[in-house]
Amino acid sequence: MNPSYLRAALVAAAATFAFAALPAGAQNIAVVNGKPIPKAQADQIVAQLVKSGQKDSPELEQAVRDQLIEREILLQEADRRGLTKDPEIQAQIDRQRQQVLIAAVANEYFKANPPSEEELHARYDEIVKNMPTKEYLAHHILVEKESDAKAIIAKLKGGASFDELAKQSKDTGSAAKGGALDWAPANAYTGAFGDALTKLQKGQVTPTPIKTEFGYHVIRLDDVRDRQIPSYDQAKERIVQIIEQDQRWQQAKFKSLLEDLRAKAKVE
User: In 81-231, which ranges are E strands?
Assistant: First the structure.
């Protein structure tokens, strides 16, 4: 587990849960110098971590418990030193509280005002317009030295088996399959590799090694087909996710919310 990731998640969760009421008499995961740490608080943080991709496990729960205990110890130390009464620190805490609440207002507004059909159709059309129209099926062999790649090309010209030569490939995943790659558009590969694919004829091997940041490739194009473009209805759910995660959309929505609220506010 990445400790820094866990700490960041705990900080975010602490800010969020600071405003949430916990049930009275909740079971505690620990008591630090007489101050209980409710199990509900740990459970909420674990749930948040699992939602973000962490695997729920006893180790994760223990890590959260340890971090919450350490946090409580530090908070008590801050109080002992009188830091909680420091005006500047109080101002910082208040700014953090404001940021959390503003973010909550924005998120609630986003949920209540999802992308419109017009926005969804426009983004779908934009994505489809920029999507590659072809997919390629290929084999490749990746080696470290250009001289080794040239030697492989010479052996292939002499009738050697591509699948056999692929066993020496640095790309161990495809090497186990004779160098075979799955169907993919050219832009799925690093620049020079994808460019080489588009210039080959079916069954043709690159006449010279193709250099990328991974090494030198020998590529054989096996087949080409038209790419199947999902319909709007098939892609709609994914398009919603794309738009909602787009910062430009969020900023525009937030600006609309702010303008509406300012128009209604009495500012003197």
Answer: 134-143, 210-212, 215-226
The yes-or-no verdict on residue 233 having pLDDT over 90 is yes
* pLDDT class of 194 with cuts at 50, 70, 90: very high
Consecutive H or E run containing 36: strand 35-38
Please give the DSSP secondary-structure letter assigned to residue 189. Answer: S
| pTM beyond cutoff 0.70 | no
Nearest partner of 104 among 17, 21, 22, 46, judged by Cα = 17
CA distances from 125 to 10, 131, 225, 245 (A): 40, 10, 22, 18
Pairing of strands 35-38, 28-32: antiparallel
Name the CATH architecture for the domain at 138-226: Roll (3.10)
139 residue type, one letter: H
Backbone φ/ψ region at 178: left (φ over 0), alpha (ψ -120 to 50), beta? left
Domain boundary assignment for the chain:
3-85, 138-226
Distances (CA, A) of 30 to 34, 35, 36, 110: 9, 8, 6, 37
User: Residue 16 pLDDT more than 60?
Assistant: no
Q: Which long-range contacts (CB under 8 A, 24 or more apart) does 210-213 make?
A: 211/146
129: Cα within 13 Å, side-chain hemisphere? 6
